[in-house]
Automatic annotation (TrEMBL):
PANTHER family: CUPIN DOMAIN PROTEIN (AFU_ORTHOLOGUE AFUA_3G13620)
Domain Cupin type-2: 101-172
SUPFAM superfamilies for this protein: RmlC-like cupins (SSF51182)
Record keywords, A-Z: Signal
Protein name according to UniProt: Cupin type-2 domain-containing protein
Biased composition (Low complexity): 49-74
Keyword presence, Signal: yes
Organism per entry: Nonomuraea maheshkhaliensis
Pfam families on file: Cupin_2
Taxon lineage: Bacteria, Bacillati, Actinomycetota, Actinomycetes, Streptosporangiales
Signal sequence, start to end: 1-20
Region (Disordered): 49-76
Length: 184
């Protein structure tokens, strides 16, 4: 029980930091829209977490990571910004990290994994399409969230819009020192 309380407090702190950095979500998921989608925690469809790379807190890193298209060009890159990274108090060997991941119109990430990290992702702007290996493609709108089990394989992570940006916040509980994103 003692280990759960610091984690919950840090998750809440990370979401407060993310909300302050990204602004409130504004839109709520309606029962009508959620109908027919498989839900987690009674609200959001099951999917994967946001693509994230190691960056110093506060630094923005544009990534050209999308898979080449049929013409040989890469889709637009995502931009990652670390909001908070710190050791979990009372939980030896674990680190709490929160990041924003912004996708320009048509932006995507290459297939990847997040190692042994537990991931919580929250869409703060736009609409994302994501897929874990062996699962159907899911569509996630502003206000939707999902969790990802350690070791899950992201085979699709993309902005669903060709004209509007998308942004999400990813919160990780990981082994200290472990890389948070490993591309295929």
């Amino acid at each position: 029980m003692m280990r759960v309380q610091p984690v919950c407090a840090l998750l809440a702190a990370g979401m407060v930091a993310a909300t302050a950095a990204c602004g409130p979500s504004g839109e709520r998921v309606t029962d009508e829209r959620a109908a027919g989608e498989r839900a987690v925690a009674g609200r959001a469809p099951v999917a994967l977490a946001a693509p994230v790379t190691e960056t110093p807190p506060g630094a923005e890193t544009p990534l050209t990571t999308g898979a080449p298209t049929a013409t040989g060009t890469r889709p637009p890159e995502e931009t990652v910004k670390t909001l908070l990274e710190q050791s979990l108090p009372g939980v030896k060997g674990k680190t709490f990290t929160s990041k924003t991941v912004a996708f320009p119109p048509g932006g995507r990430s290459v297939p990847h994994r997040h190692g042994n990290a537990f991931v919580y992702a929250y869409v703060v702007e736009g609409t994302m399409r994501s897929q874990l290996g062996g699962e159907p493609v899911g569509t996630y709108r502003q206000g939707d969230f999902w969790v990802e089990a350690p070791g899950a394989h992201h085979v699709l992570t993309e902005n669903a819009s060709q004209s509007e940006p998308a942004k999400l916040v990813a919160v990780y509980i990981s082994n200290t020192g472990e890389k948070l994103k490993v591309d295929d």
